[in-house]
Amino acid sequence: MASLSLPRVLYPRKSSLEIERENFEKSQTQALSKAINSQETPVKQKHVRSAIIGTFHTQGATTFWAIALRLPAMDDRIVAWKFCHVVHKILREGHPLCLVHSQRHIKDLDEIGKLWVHLKDGYGKMIRLYTSLLITKLDFHRKNPRFPGHLGVTPDELDSIGGNDINNFFQMSVEMFDYLDNIIDLQEAVFGSLDMARSNSMTSAGQCRLAPLIPCIQDASKLYDYCVKILFKLHFSLPPDILAGHRQRFLKQFRLLKQFYQNTSNLQYFKDLIAIPPLPENPPNFLIQSDLRMYVTQEVVVPQEPEEEHHQTEGSLIDTSDHMDLVDSHSSNSTSPGPAHQELIAERDFLRNQYDKLSADFSALLLKNQKTVDDFHNKITALETDLVTKESELVQERQVKEELMNQAFAVAQSQDSEQKVKDEKFNKLKDVYVKLRNDHIQKLREKADIEKKLSQTAKTLENYEQTKNELEATVLNLRAEVSKVEDRFQQSATSQDEELQNLKRDKELFNMETEILKKTIDDVCRDRDNLDMQIKSAQTKIDRLEAEIQEISTQKSQLERQIDQVRSGFQDDIKDIILKAIESSENMLRGAIHEVDNPALTALICSPDYLNDLSKSCLGVLNYDTDRIFSENSYMLVTANEISHRIVVFILQGRATANKSPDISFGEKIAQECKNLGEIVLQLLQNFKEKTDTKPLQTKTIQKLQEVATLADDINISLMGQNAGNLADMLESEMSEMDKVIEETAKRMQEMLTNSRSRDSGIKLEVNSKILDSCTNLMQAIRILVAKSKLLQAEIIAQGKGTASAKEFYKRNHQWTDGFISAAKAVAVAAKFLLTAADKVVSSNGKLEQLIVAAQEIAASTAQLVVASRVKADRNSGNLQQLTQASKGVTRATGTVVGTVKDCSQLIDEAEEFDATNLTLHQAKRLEMESQVRVLELEKELEQERHRLMALRKHHYSLEGENGD
User: Fold this and answer.
1) Are 65 and 32 in contact (CB under 8 A)?
2) For residue 670, what pLDDT is reported?
3) pTM score, whole prediction
4) Residue 879 region by backbone torsions, left for phi larger than 0, else alpha for psi between -120 and 50, else beta
5) Are 562 and 639 in the same domain?
6) Which of 134, 519, 767, 837 could disulfide-link to 854, CB 3.0 to 4.6 Å?
7) Which of 581, 614, 645 is the last residue of a domain?
């Protein structure tokens, strides 16, 4: 009994859960090893089904990838091809979280494709195209997470995924076209390889190549159906010219898919595996919307395999056969039930009871989870129904608003037309009035002139009357005098008669002038009367126009009152829209705050540096203009929308950053601070709705955002470890060490050159001088490069990149600093290697090829230093240009070293040319055979050395990847 109890003390018994986990991993490893092997036969579906069921058992693809990546996909092309096929099946039919867990393995798929693309036969190209297809599928599901792995959604779900936004459907169609292009390229490569390999669908090799086309056909059928529906939807909303490129791309894919389906249907291998409906003879005409009613969705049917095999596979997931067989064998081999045998029987019964209990618990847990999933599905369906209802109501409200706007526009347009007619009438009357007024003023001016002339004429008449009276008096006087002196002036009677006649003639002329003046006065009076009549008529028209103007003013005031009423209605609608938009932003924020506690987010991570970049964009949005926020509705709406969207992204990424914290309590603190930030922003949006002062909450939000960003920096510091603060010292130490090594190397080269000149002669002196001169020039070029690199590094630190000091800069950019330190170490190591190789060559203990390797290694190391310096430098920097020129100088010096070594090697070979003139036939034959043996040995050593170099490079890359992580 003591011997039996001792192992139990030393080796504790495993629990039933641990045994079950080990058995499950063992069965999964066995299934995947059988499914993904090096035999050129198609993958067996029962093994793939075991892997698929395993993803549901583990709720994801973590275990699958852990096992699959250990398979020799990088060593065997058949394994790589089957690996891609199984991954495709897992993504399509596995647990929904397989799409999420596989995102982190895109790089592994890409590396497999890049490795095998160099293979010249068909598998290399097919593997590369298959990995590209898988990467495209993962990218598509990352951008459209609501599509399941098998791509099957209903039309309502497709509309919900697009969000009834034509821009989303436009982008989605482009992504589906890219997806289809990858499928078409892969099938063309597969059929092309069949022709090249002289294989068909009835051979194992042909079936191995054709088997992955079945999930490709399933994906292509769904994508074609969605492309047709989306293109009809796009043509319904957008002009045909914009979608010309989409139509051309669809027509090309239609022809290729039709050919693909025909080629597949003609093969006997696919007859019992998949039913492929043929595409229509002609593609849909998207310019005619009625063709959508004629379109019929064609489903690809894959017959189900027998259920017995499925149950056997599912039952094999929990394998207790080994232990049970062991117990049964013990029980059958034992002739008498001893204590050990009884203990084994008791342990077997205990394990069986534990197994039954765990099976019952597992079944109950499955039922509970299924019920929870059903409840969530029902809730999602109800929420989607409510969302569709709300969207329909919003569309109706928008239609009512558009009708009101159209009516108001029509009323305003009719009022504008009536007002325009009235204005034209008023302008015409105004022009007539102005013309009459000007004519009236002109006539008044002419009347004044005429009255002035009349006054002058009256004065002239008065002068004439006075002259006339004076003349009459003079005549009377003269008559009296004549009568008195008639006797005395008998002699002058004739002259006096003549004078009298002259006076009479003058009187007649005066009378004529008087009559003319009277006539002129009459004409003026008549014109004045006519003007008075015209003025009275114009006054009457003016009175009538003033009445019409008064009536128009009354109508205008009524229209202005109506416009004010419509405008007030519009203002109410705008307020409702703003409130609903802000409420939508609040709901989005609440959803983000709720998502912080979602366990599904624990698998997501985000770098603190990316979170800091997000905080800068959030600060830019939060620094809004408080004076404009309530004066401009559009500004307030845009600001609230931008704040909510950016803060939601920041909260979710903050939760993902908290997942990266090694301290769980500290991560929970960051998550809580993110939730507090969301609550503050909710209060800020509430102030937007209530139009109260937002300045205090704005300041509080910015402070809380900066606090979260500071906590993220603490995570970054904790992730970098204890050496984060010493990066500047480490970099300075490595740079100093590199300078010291370069100086010592250059000095040592000069000493070796001096010693060689004093010691050697002839060809050896010539060879050593050329080699040491070229190596010395290379070291001088490296010294110049290092000096330029230091100047550029100082410039980068001087720019600051937003940091306060050089140490802070190195700490924030620790990955770049690590790269710079690694580059400095590589330069120092390469310089030492070059010195050692040159020393061995000069002392005749080394090979010239070592110098070539050393020169190429030091060129690669300096190139790494240049790249590390160039990453954060300004593109227009003068120091960067100088560093580039120095790098070119190192490249030229490296080429000079390699050329010099080759010339020296040729020179030595010419000096040591083999002399076969004195050899006999037997000696020549023997030396020839020895030379052939040496050639074979060298070829074998070369092949071994190449394998060794490949292994060293793989190990080097893995070490660099660990250091980078």
Assistant:
1) no
2) 81
3) 0.38
4) alpha
5) no
6) 837
7) 581
Burial of 607 (0-12, 13-18, 19+ CB in 10 A): middle
Residues 565 and 611 occupy one common structural domain: no
Report the helix count and the strand count for the chain, using DSSP H and E. Answer: 29, 0
**Would 315 be classed as within a structural domain?**
no
Output the CA torsion sign for 362, 364, 370, 373. negative
What CA–CA distance (Å, rounded) separates 307 from 314? Answer: 10
Please write the tens of the pLDDT for every residue from 276-316: 888 888 888 888 887 788 888 878 887 765 443 433 433 33
Can you state the percent helix, strand and coil of the chain, rounding each to 5? 80, 0, 20
Go through the chain and tell me how many residues it has.
Answer: 965
Q: How far is CA 295 from CA 180, 284, 292, in A?
A: 20, 8, 5
Plot region of 164 (φ>0 → left; ψ -120 to 50 → alpha; else → beta)? left
Residue 363 CA, chain-centre distance (Å), reads 45
Residue 301 bridge partners (DSSP): 275
Q: Structurally, how many domains does the chain consist of? A: 5
User: CA angle at residue 701 from 698 to 706, to 5 degrees?
Assistant: 130
Residues 6+ apart with CB under 8 A from 57: 24, 317
Count of other CB atoms within 10 angstroms of residue 32: 24
> Is the Cβ–Cβ distance between 715 and 609 less than 8 Å?
no
| Distance, CA of 754 to CA of 713 (rounded, Å) | 56
Task: State which H helix or E strand residue 353 sits in.
Answer: helix 339-485
Residue carrying the six token digits 């509309």 = 159
Give the N- to C-terminal CA distance of the chain in Å, as an integer. 52
Taking residues 11-32, what's their average pLDDT? Answer: 80
> What pLDDT does 377 receive?
72
Question: How far, in Å, CA of 768 to CA of 760, rounded?
Answer: 9
Q: How far is CA 670 from the centre of its chain?
A: 27
Note the pLDDT tens digit of each residue in 807-864.
Answer: 666 666 666 666 666 677 777 777 777 777 777 776 666 677 777 777 777 777 777 7
CATH code for position 715 = 1.20.120
650 and 569 share one domain: no
- With pLDDT > 70 as the criterion, what percentage of the chain qualifies? 72
pLDDT digits (tens, 9 = 90+) for 895-949: 887 777 777 766 665 554 454 556 676 666 666 676 777 777 778 878 888 888 8
576-624 confidence digits (pLDDT tens): 888 888 888 888 888 888 888 777 777 677 777 777 778 888 888 888 8
Determine the pLDDT at residue 956: 66
Query: Does residue 586 form part of some domain?
Result: no
Would you say residue 649 has pLDDT above 70? Answer: yes
Is residue 489 in some structural domain?
A: no
Alpha carbons 128 and 41: distance in angstroms, whole number:
20
Q: Do 91 and 140 belong to one domain?
A: yes
pLDDT tens per residue, range 923-936: 666 666 767 777 77
Q: Which of 818, 846, 843 is nearest to 833 (CA)?
A: 846
Relative orientation angle of helices 814-842 and 762-799, to the nearest 10 degrees = 170
The mean per-residue pLDDT over the stretch 360-366 comes to: 73
Q: Is residue 591 part of a domain?
A: no
Please check whether residue 88 is in contact with residue 134, taking contact to mean a CB–CB distance below 8 angstroms. yes
Task: Kindly state the tokens that stand for 81.
Answer: 């091809």
Note down the domain range covering 624.
597-720
3-class DSSP state of 881: helix
Across the strands, what pairs with 275? Answer: 301
**In a shared domain, residues 201 and 239:** yes
pLDDT of residue 844: 66
The answer to whether residues 715 and 728 belong to one domain is no
User: What's the confidence (pLDDT) of residue 830?
Assistant: 72
Kindly state the helix (H) or strand (E) to which residue 206 belongs, with its residue range.
helix 204-210
184 with 114, same domain: the answer is yes
Domain limit, last residue, from 871, 898, 913? 913
Tokens representing residue 147 in the block: 């599509």
For residue 118, give the amino acid letter. Answer: H
